[in-house]
Amino acid sequence: MALTFMVPGLDEATSEKAIGILQSRLSQEQETALVLKHVHWNLTGPNFIAVHEMIDPQVDVVLAQADETAERIATLGGSPDGRADAITRVRTWSKFLLEGRAGTEEYLKALDAYYSEFIKADRTAIAELDELDVISSNIVQDHVQELEKFQWFMRSHLV
């Protein structure tokens, strides 16, 4: 990929590696917003309204994270890919498989597992970005803090 410009203090190879890591995070952030809306629309049963209303603010959080990640890619001179096929092209994480109408507990358990994988991937990205670009690493660290908080909310419903 040809970078449009360089951030002072980073060389092209380092920037390209950071952009690749960030593109993966961007794609999972975008997918997560879609997964959350799917859950929001399809969950049923006890605690429906509490969980239904808990999910929408998290959609906003992960969309804001995606925006921040995309803007960091652009800042590094790359071109963020926000198209739907980018999600499937760069996916290294498991698909969210729960379909259709299901109970709140079933959906929260599936989301908990999805978030565990998401957070683990973000933590791996942090470790890799620490060696490449501490600014990008700090962005992902902030994202993990929000993801972990929401996972705590979900787990609290399951206790």
Topology:
Blueprint: H1 12-42, E1 43-44, H2 48-75, H3 84-90, E2 102-103, H4 104-132, H5 134-158
Parallel strand pairs: 1-2
Notes on the protein architecture:
The chain is an all-alpha fold. It has a single domain, classed as Ferritin (Up-down Bundle), CATH 1.20.1260.10. It has helices at residues 12-42, 48-75, 84-90, 104-132, 134-158; strands spanning 43-44, 102-103. The chain has a two-stranded parallel ribbon. The N and C termini lie far apart (47 Å). 32% of the residues are buried. The model has no long low-confidence stretch (mean pLDDT 96). Pfam families: Ferritin. Residues 21-158 form the Ferritin/DPS domain. Belongs to the Dps family. This is Ferritin-like protein.
Key terms:
159 residues, Ferritin, two-stranded parallel ribbon, 2 strands
Produce a short descriptive summary.
The chain is mostly helical and 159 residues long. The protein has helices at 12-42, 48-75, 84-90, 104-132, 134-158, and strands at 43-44, 102-103. It has one domain (20-88, 101-158): Ferritin, CATH 1.20.1260.
